[in-house]
Specification:
heterodimer; A: 294 residues; 8-stranded mixed sheet; two-stranded antiparallel sheet; 9 helices; 23% strand; B: 693 residues; 6-stranded mixed sheet; 26 helices; 16 strands; 49% helix
Chain lengths: 294, 693
Amino acid sequence: MNLQNMILTLQRYWSDQGCFVMQAYDVEKGAGTMNPMTFLRSIGPEPWNVAYVEPSRRPVDGRYGENPNRLYQHHQFQVVMKPSPDNIQELYLQSLKEIGIDANEHDIRFVEDNWEAPTLSASGLGWEVWLDGMEITQFTYFQQVGGLDAKPVSAEITYGIERLASYIQDKENVFDLEWHSGITYHDLYYQSEYEHSKYTFEVSDTDMLFTLFNIYEKEAMRAIEDQLVFPGYDYVLKCSHVFNQLDAKGAISVTERTGYIGRVRNLARKCANAYYEQREQLGFPMLKGAKIDE
Amino acid sequence: MSKHDLLLEIGLEEMPARFVTDAMYQLSDKIAGWFSENRIPFGDVLPYSTPRRLAVKITEVADKQEDQEEELRGPAKKIAFDDEGNWSKAALGFARGQGVNPEDLFFKEVKNTEYVFANKFTTGISTMDLLPQLDKVIQNLHFPKNMRWGDQDFKFVRPIKWILFLYGAEVPKLEVAGVRSDRKTYGHRFLGEEIEIESPERYPTDLLGQFVIADPKERKEAIQNQLENIQDEERWKIPIDNGLLEEVTNLVEYPTALYGKFDEEFLELPPEVLITSMREHQRYFPVQNKEGELQPYFVTVRNGDHNHLANVVKGNEKVLRARLKDAQFFHNEDKKKPIDHYLNKLESIVFHEELGTIADKVGRIKIHAENSTELLHLDSDSRSSIQRAASICKFDLVTQMVYEFPELQGVMGEKYAKLFGEDELIAAAVNEHYQPRFAGDALPGTVVGSVLSVSDKLDTIVGCFGIGIIPTGSQDPYALRRQAAGVLQILIQKGWPVELEQLLNATLDVYEDKQLLKNDRLDVFNQLIEFFNVRLKTILQDQGIRYDVIDAVLTGELGRVDLLLKRAELIAENLKHHYFKVANVSLTRVLNISKNLDEGFGEINPGLFENDEEKVLYEFYLSCKGQSDAIQQPEDVTLFYDKLMELPEVIDRYFDHTMVNADDEGIRENRQAQMKGLSEVIRSFADFNQLVV
């Protein structure tokens, strides 16, 4: 199964389980969790079921396209279900079967893994899922998001698409993966991997990035103060990405690091609180919908 | 009354392996405790667990509580009657409350007061009716980390999926987190199915048919046997790490061991790197040949049967290959740069915000080490080795390998240091200075490593105390307790002629010079002494030394801890002997006399002695003091001890002929001074008053 079909299969499958299939968010981010469709929507009592592919940027993992396993940008397939259904593990295992991984023919384990995202003031408990010893998925029950208790709890399933594909396609090197019709990952991403790595480590203007961080932070603050949660949150994401770029370049010392993480976290918490209040004022509209359904 | 077996199984989403065993015993202990409290007799308690279930079977549980007859005390007799001599409200209320007729009340005296009493007879309730209360017991299980799920407010280790609950053939009612008891259970996640259990006797046999070995001991044995089979067939040696075996046992319900291979070229990596990759990251068992050399194979345990094993082997080989490739890359990259490159980088790594960078810490370690070198009168060769080792002891923290494998700090330091051309002794010290890494770990073998280890640990402990980071309860993020125990063990084993107080003060001096002490120095010092006192107590207890003996030797300064331990050992060994008991009477007699005397006493003036016994005692005192002052090593402590044990003979004669409380003031004070002096010498060994003999 090529990578494109794998994604299509997962989308179809989770759509059948009642998830909205959404598209990736258009602001740079380090993980699918940061997409407002996970971060903001997992806050508050309203039910929420969503699935989407998220291209996630990790500047520090950039390797100029030379490393078989590490990428500046990889893809996550993200599923969030709130409240977490009782059969969520079974739903997940069935999804693996859909993409050709029959649990009976492999060794699948749920190995303890506690997740924490300090920049989002978010944490959860769950597992990394091992397929024959390889971690293919992060499986998390959110306990806290943006400093707020997750109530009800969302289950978040994050598939590492390249990891899974390399297993399914039996490839040692991520760049050898077939995306579709003989077109490889190399054809599609090698050039951008190289350029982003070179830019991140050699070319990026450190002073400008520091300036941007401050500008974005200020703008995020201003938007949130005006109760504009989504525009505010976009700037939080931008802060986070700029921070990751600076961090990858080694421009932030260890002492300063804690400070910058704290600044992003502070913004994320403000967004979380503002979002909750907003939804509360609206009477948690999606909650009502759910009740009528019953 | 009849009896039935009882079975309770809580089905869960996969628990963290490290919680399973403890949770299993908690469940069985608490349930058995609940039966005892509720006066329900029962037979054997059999605990079971897998990653997905906690279970307990209890045999021969009585179907009814035992009846209970209690004598209950009510109000005092004087308020039990009203003015007309009828039962008062208080008495009637008591009778009603206990469900007895007022005419059955009687009187009894307790501590000179008469009270109303009632005999209350409670008929036991049927067990079946009480069992739903077990929900409280389940809710009270304690886990290091709990979670919520769905829209539950209830917290548990992982979501509860089912509750299998049987009392004989019946299903008692029970509900936890919205899950109701049933006779259903589930087999292996992939190989098994949902089944119904008829009665507790069928458990765990029926589960085995569903590819679940519910008894962890059996699972562990199965894994061990499989490992041994592979070992014999392949003529390997598979060293069994008990921690790993335990973890793997709690990661699978139905184990099947298998082995895979990796490229021989990876054997060029340090064995520790290979072992860590396999053991820590993948939970594999590394493989050796009969000569104990690492082989390019690994053994892993699958949660399942033998079918499609080739897939599992292939997948695991792929994962390990990627990991080892990474490690190889880091190893090659690390070797390319000189040691100074790493030393410079230490300046950008923060040790603690208030205590500076790792480079700052290294700077301090060098001074501490220099101070110790002087205190220990080490020669100039050792001194220069110590200084070099101190300078480079942390360089590997910024190598890529240690960044990726933090557990290899020190180990990689030694390897790389040798590659970079450092002296063997110095390279070894880079590793040794982390020892002991855990309770029971080896201590540094060399003087250089020992000095460094003590310097590094004291630097952390004193630094943290100086800014108010003091371990409390379970809070000890910098593992200060472990480090303090390490320091004490080294001091004990090496027998350094240095007092703990000296080392602490020298370390405090450095912090004071650098203005890194946030709190008052004397306060910090006292907190440190208290802290080390408790650590030392633990070490002595671990050696099997009794509390009273520990209290006797831990009265004043800690001083040289090796000698302190020797004193404790001497007392502990001889405590039971008759001669010791006799000596103890004399020793405590002197201690008690001097305890009641005023503070301060003058020199003992032999010119004021009135009898020979005083002279003899004085000579005895001088020779004791001489022995005490001359102590250099533990053997000298024995000599001092032997001398002290001679006291009874001398002191008994003395008291027969001498009144300490003499009429003449001069003579009296002189005798008191004698007692004080002698008492001080005795106390320098131990406070014998603390002993229970």
